[in-house]
Structures are given as C-alpha cells and as structure tokens.
Amino acid sequence: MIIVSDTSTITNLLQINRLDILKSLYGNIVIPPGVRRELYRIEGQKTIIDKLDWISTEYPHDQQLIAELLEDLDLGESEAIALAIELDAEYLIIDEYKGRAIAEKKGVKIVGLLGILIAAKTCGHIESIKSLLETIMSNGFRLNSSLVDKVLTALGEK
C-alpha cells in the first residue's frame, strides 16, 4: 500500500507526540521534497523526521502538473498530489480544503487528520479521539465543530 502525505497531518501528530498513529495504520509514508522542506521549517521537526525510516522522500516527475497545481496550491501540496497520482497511491493524506478538492477532482483518494483518528480508533490503535482532537484544535488546527460533535457521538465519546 502506497500512502503519500502532505505536511499538516504529520505536523499535527508530531505536536502531540502521536506520529505512531500513522505508522500503525499505514506502515510507510512517502512525502515529496516540498513537504520535507515544509516539515523542516518547524523547529525540532527536522531531527525527528530524519530519524524515521518509515517516512521516505520521492520526487514527482510531472513538472507540468506541478506547475498547473502551483497556480492554486503551495509547493508541498502540489508535489504531494502529483506524487500520489504518479505512484497510484492508495491515499493522499491532506487536510487543506482547496488541496483536498483539487486532489479529488484529479481522482486521488484522500484522507485527513480526522479520518485518520477515526480509523485509528476503529482499528484499536487508540482508545479515544476526543482528547487528541481537543489538543490538536487547541494548537490551532481547525475543524467544523458540528462535524466533530457528529464524529464523537458516532464513536460514543460525546
């Protein structure tokens, strides 16, 4: 299974020391160089990312597609979408609304942080998502509160 990731979910899980959730669910993650550079910009993340042998970097080759995507998205998102298409990835992990919409239009299957947390709970990798969501949201990650309420209710955490 090939999983490509953008920056946001990795950063948010790193901030709460739960990057293990990605490894538990997906094994290996592939990121493009633009995402690696974005991860390196956040203090302390370079050292952690460089130690993880299950996150690898691959270069997307379709420069025309990347240039097209750069009209609406940043470099990390553009390269991640292009790489997901080139590798025929099972999923692209991406949270930003515009990037998700464009990826879906291009036929890429997407999952975001909330979907990952739901899957982790469903598979038994975590007991609860409520406290994790509260911490992530207190760090600035935005989610629709009614969506969060629906998810917590469905998972029996409301």
Secondary structural class = mainly alpha
Q: Cα distance, first to last residue? A: 33 Å
CATH class: Alpha Beta
| Overall geometric form | globular
Order the strands across the largest sheet as they lie in space: 1-4-5
Q: What average pLDDT do the residues reach?
A: 94
* Amount of beta strand: 5-15%
Would you identify the CATH architecture? Answer: 3-Layer(aba) Sandwich
Radius of gyration from the alpha-carbon trace, in angstroms: 15 Å
InterPro entries: PIN-like_dom_sf, PIN-like_prokaryotic
Protein name: Nucleic acid-binding protein
Pfam families: DUF3368
Could you explain how this protein is built, in words?
The protein has one domain: 5'-nuclease (Rossmann fold), CATH 3.40.50.1010. The chain is built from 10 helices and 5 strands, in the order βααβααβααβαβααα. It has helices spanning 7-15, 20-26, 33-40, 45-51, 63-69, 75-86, 97-105, 113-122, 130-138, 145-154, and strands at residues 3-5, 29-31, 55-57, 91-93, 110-111. The strands form 2 sheets. Strands 1-4-5 form a 3-stranded parallel β-sheet. A two-stranded parallel sheet has the order 2-3. The longest helix is centred in the middle third of the chain and has 12 residues, at 75-86.
Write the layout of secondary structure elements.
Layout: E1 3-5, H1 7-15, H2 20-26, E2 29-31, H3 33-40, H4 45-51, E3 55-57, H5 63-69, H6 75-86, E4 91-93, H7 97-105, E5 110-111, H8 113-122, H9 130-138, H10 145-154
Parallel strand pairs: 1-4, 2-3, 4-5
Pfam families: DUF3368
InterPro entries: PIN-like_dom_sf, PIN-like_prokaryotic
Organism: Neolewinella xylanilytica
